Structures are given as structure tokens and as C-alpha cells.
User: Fold this.
Amino acid sequence: MTGVLLRSGLKKMNKLVKDNTNKEIKILAIESSCDETAAAVVVNGRDVRSNVISSQVPLHTLYGGVVPEIASRKHIEKINPVIKQALSDAKMTFDDIDAIAVTYGPGLVGALLVGVAEAKAISFARKLPLIGVHHIEGHISANYIENKELEPPFLCLVVSGGHTHLVHVADYGKYEILGRTRDDAAGEAFDKVARSIGLGYPGGPKIEKAAREGDADAIDFPRAKVHDNPYDFSFSGVKSAVLNYLNSCRMKNTEIVSEDVAASFQKAVCDVLIEHAISGAKQFGAKRLAIAGGVASNSCLREGMREACAKEGISFYHPSPILCTDNAAMIGAAAYYEYIAGVRSGWDLNAVPNLKLGER
Ligand code: KG4
Ligand code: ZN
Assistant:
């Protein structure tokens, strides 16, 4: 097991959860770590009253990926209207809100700073508690929203554009990282492969769409194993294998069927993700397995994971696709458990682009 990361100050969590169940805690949450400007109102961590997402995808598509400077400027433009919309959709005003939550890392520093500055300003002006939230903790907590019965402990596979982690959620706010990627994140591999076969940005959904028309057994792409930790991942090999395959087809003048490349690549990535997660669950005796992050909206991964979990008698959880990709409802869900544990951020809260899970 690598990197056991625990956070202090969260003892007696279950007792605190019970003591707080009678009061409705309404959290206004803000997310701006990458290319979505988002705000949501979440009550008691699981009841989403509004979830507003302003996506910058069409803007960044022009450049084939996220341009950090453009992302920050767009967040500044959108953040106030998005918050106003979130309050209005929830039929609330700032007077109804108990706390402000914001993603403070990891992510693009300029993008994070917009959300953090906004949250601090609201918190100061309205005298509301401020809670800085880890983006990955948010992704994991997205599972609580539609699965009311889900509580720790469980295993969670976090697969996004920047992260691939197999995490043991020991308790609310208490995480042990069993495995992580040694190179590219799963979503990053989807994005790079999509670009190389000319599908454009964002790669994940485009690969998934093309793969539906392709044969997943057409090309035998490698499934990498990392020898010193069976739960670590590596996706740079499969990405290079796709590039080599494309180059060799071009050199030999043979036809490239991009649907087959997409389907075979997607299957290779999903096979590894499923195998690692299931063997982790078996090894650690986990009866519940969840997935989270943008790649968790991929239907090949969801169906494969559902089947594998059913075979092993493990309960499988996943958020709806809209709660898999970046959103603020997941930040509000994570923030609730911080709030009831007494975690508060000060005026010195800052953007931390490389924040590690379990760190404060
Ligand atoms: O969680 P997310 O919205 O942002 C980060 O925190 O990174 O994840 C975005 C990533 C991108 O790499 C995107 O290509 C990938 O998730 N993604 C998908 C799908 N939808 C989004 N990957 C595979 N299949 C999808 N359907
Ligand atoms: Zn994310």
C-alpha cells in the first residue's frame, strides 16, 4: 500500500453526523478548478437544490485543449451570474445559506483563484463560515448525492482528466490511497488518443461515441501492469501503442478505421481500471465499490464495472454523468461532512494547484 494519508480533526465523525441530523445545513458551493464555472446549493450533503454549470468546452475546443489564461478570464466573467442562478434555482438568498464551500485545489492556479477569491468575499461580506474543499474529495462525494444509503467505508476509483486514484474511503474525510497513475491520468489518455485519431477535444465523450460503431477486439492494445504495486496504473504505454499503430498504418498505406481504434483503446483502458479496482476490493475485503470523475461517465467502464462487481458480490455505485464531470454539487456534498466535523478555512485560504488528497 502506498501513501497512507489520513486527516486529523475528523474524529467522532459518525456521532457528529447523528447530532446534526435535525438541522438543515444549506451550503453554497463553488467550483472553478478547470474549465467549468459552477455553483450549487446542497442541503445536508445529499439534497441538491440547484446545480448550475457554465461549461467553457466550446471555447477551448478551438485550441484542442484547455488554455489556462482563457479559463481564468471566463471564470471571472461567469462566476457571479452562475452563483445568482444557483441561489435563484434553489429559491434561496444569501440569508438562507449556512456556509460557503469552494474548491481550492488541485487544478489550474488562475482558475482556482477566481473561485477562492469569490468564496472569501461572500464569506466575509455575509459573515458565513468558509470551507475549502479538495477537488478529488468532491468527486468521491458525488456518489453520496444519488446513493442515500452509501456511507464509508468503501473503495472508490477516481478517474478524471488529471487524476487516476484507487482510494479506500475509510470514513468521511479519511482517505487511504491504494494506487495511483505513474504517468498519464485515464482521462488525459482519452484526450490525447482522441486528438491523435482526429476526433478533437474533449476526447472522452468523442472516443466513447466513435467506439460504439467500432470493434473492441480489432486491435490488441497493451494492458500495463506496474510491478511494485498491483494497484498503480500506467497509461502512457497504451497511448504510445495507439500512436505507433497509426504511424505504421500510415507508412504501410493501410486504412485506419478510427471507430475500431477508439473501441480497442477504450476497452484496453477499461479492462485495466476494472481489474485493478476489483482486485483491490477483494484484497481489502470491500463490499462496496464506487467510481468518480469525468471518465466515470463512460458507459464501457460503468457496464464493465457493474458486471465485474455483480460477479464478485460487491455493491457498485456511480454518480449520474452530470455529477461525474466537474460540478459544484459534489463540492457541497463533501463540504457538509467537513462542516459538521468543525473544519473551517481562514482568510488565508489560497489556491493550491498540486494539493494532495488528505492534506490541509
Ligand atoms: O472530472 P473531470 O470533468 O475534470 C477533471 O477533474 O479532470 O474529467 C474530465 C476528463 C476529461 O479527460 C474527459 O475526456 C474525460 O474526463 N471524460 C470521459 C468521458 N467524459 C469525460 N472519458 C471517457 N468517457 C467519457 N464519456
Ligand atoms: Zn474534476
